Amino acid sequence: MTLDPIVITLIEAVVKTIVVIVALLTAFAYLTLVERYVIAKIQSRIGPNRVGAIGGIALLQPIADAIKMIFKEDFWPSQADKIIYTIAPGIAVGTALLAWAVMPLHPSTEIFGYRVDFFIADVNIGVLYLLAIGSLGVYGIVLGGWGSNNKYSMLGALRSTAQMISYEVSLGLALVGVLMISGSLSLVTIVEKQSFIWNVVWQPLGFIIYFIAAVAEVNRLPFDLPEAETELVAGYQTEYSSLKFALFYMAEYINMITVSAIAATMFLGGYQGPFGILPGVHWLVLKIMFFIFVMMWMRGTLPRFRYDQLMRFGWQVLLPLALANIFITALVMLVVGA
Amino acid sequence: MSVTAPVAPPNTPNYNDPQIVAEQIKTKYPDAVESSSAQGIVVQSDQLREVARYLHDELAFDYLNNVTSVDWQDRFEVVYNLTSLERGGAPITLKVNAARENPSVPSLVPVFRGADFQEREVYDLMGIRFEGHPNLRRILLWDGFEGYPLRKDYKEPYYEEEKKPFGSRWDKGHHVIAEDRNPWHDNVQYPSNFDAVAYKPPRDQIQVIDAAQAAAMRLRTDKIVLNFGPQHPSTHGVLRLRVTLEGETVRGVEPIVGYLHRNHDKIGERNTFVGNMPYTDRLDYFTSMANNLAYALTVEKLLGIKPPERAEYIRVIMAELTRWQNHAVALGFIYNDLGAFYTPLIYAMEERELILDLFEATAGSRMMCNYMRFGGVARDVTDDFIAKCKYLVNERLPRRTDELEAYMVGNEIFHSRAKNIGVLPRDLAINYSTAGPVLRASGVKYDIRRAEPYSIYDRFDFEIPTGTTGDLYDRFIVRVAEMRESLKILKQALDQFPAGEIMTGKKNYQVRVPKGEAYGRGENPKGELGFYVVSDGTANPYRYHVRGPSFINLTALNDMCVGYKIADMIVILGSLDIVMGEVDR
Fold it and tell me: Which ipTM was obtained for this model?
């Protein structure tokens, strides 16, 4: 029996989507555990070591956390805008997951006679798509902060809007250098072109700008102003509880994975090993883990910027640098002849 | 109002003697002084403000330590303690009498802004009106409260007896529960015809800005009033700050305290003198040893006794260990307020645990030490204690101080966030009666351990670190420097540590304290912790008042925060290093 190629493509897409989503959600769950361990080590503590502990590592802790979250009271503020309040966490998670549609995870291989591509879609404007989806993520936060009808949430949401818009610009511009070198907006092409030397070698400044802007984009310390605990209680998520709170949390971690994956793809050769050694998804995972570790490390080390300092840094330091990076790249390409 | 820098007159007589000060006042205001003695100068109520201004401007009594009041049944007495920060020495006492009916005295806020919260407290608990006070409202109790609990004729809910020790609850052969003895049979005493459900605070007492009112006042509607706390991660307890915000910029801060109020003063009056010692632990629960010390010093002043050498050394060691751990944790908390994820705090806590181990080994308790006694300390320290303490002081803590400083003061983000933020100028710091590191960070070289040396602090060689601008950064590094000075004192104390008795006389559950009154104080890590104790010769204090440094430092909060960002406000509050147990008492 032969299947219609369209059906096969459809099945393939559905299977791949499910696999990616499940992998991401599992990764989110265990990242919370990893973060707790990393922070614990930084703070000379032990970290969780009770739930399903094997060798002192609480492997079932994320599951216990999830069960706890589910059974928490789902609290509705009486003055909240019910619809917006409800859909906001959904938007946050949805946009976070959508970014993975274009992420190349592994070189294409033959499985059971079929050629399988390890990405859900090879869009020829992949990078643009990623940036667009990334910008949508702010809606989850803004609507959540607005819908809660709480002053802290409101302040957090406003901060978040300003912050994400400011850093979005530098983030996008930092990637332009890579696009100029690669000559393509498709992520698959960008990765393939890095099979010998990673882009970070040509684009060190772009890489640093991207990483700083990415940390700001995912609201991690020292840029965690939208949810600044000591100032705004929890910012936009102050009024959220139970699963809705978990969804915001999930969005934050998936965004962390996403920006790390983009950094790995654009600058560190994605699934390519160093100098083309053994390309495969494990390289991508390793690179993502490296970035996530650095983010956790920063969280355990640094205090927070103040809001006006953050804005000044974004517009007066990062943006000119990103523009200069594009200019220098263009100049060098013109001189060398690309 | 005048905040002119005080100029010491030439050929300064000894102004630490109230008699001489009284004579000086008489030269300017002949009718102002009613009487004067070593206990204090009693001033005519109508000339109080003039006298205070004279003392402030001419005699350089620029610092108002303490305001409190005593109910003498036939009259009220408001007590002021004044110091000159330049001259140092013991504070002089200024008293003014008020009638039993509708008591009222002039407010000293125009002269000393530090009187603000303290006068409100006196009004709140004793019911004495301060004419000319800008904001005379209840502060520790809620606005609808009826009665003035520190008056001698006030009986609180669950009142049992006037003084401890209370009689047996089993004296009739069966247990009598306290609730049954309560004259009101209810937990809270409401005013007559009071409806708790329908109660709304009067408009003039709470500034509720609603839309209609805002329109009528032509207020800019982009200002929001935000209630920070009482449940908030970084208000250091149940403190509420009513903050007026314009975007992210702070336009006004009003601390609202009292959520932890338990009327420590009244409890103290019911207690016996010794029985009060554990209650002082609960004031500032980070520094219970230092609280004990200040209270013991005050009562020893009344008793006229001195502890033996060894006890003095133990006291100093305990107080300085307390100072080190308090500052370390305070710095960690400031970093938390700056947004760090607990790491510096936990590093500080790690060391604090070791110090608390020492406390536990000696006093039996880690935080609520209840260790000092009048004329000594409760238990002797062991050789093991001394060995461990020497290890900490000579090896571990200096290293850790350097480490903490390198981690925290060296941070670039910290510099950009702390410099020139929350500036409290020198004049204002003095006028607001701020104390401790907050005062010193503003450039005032004032430390009670040097200005009026108590215990054996005059034997040690140590510096008083001061700041220059009085900003957040200064308050931070002054604390780091003080940690070093504490270690210096500890080193010397451990080297000189003598053998001998730890208690003058024998241990006693009931001390008879001779009639009299005393204002005793100690340089707590948070500032000047003062106790004003009046004894009528019985086993219980007639009046017992605590001057909490955290409480009075809060007075200056508004001036420090206005114009800065909301994120700065949190750190400024953290840099005051308040503990609500002491603020609310």
Answer: 0.83
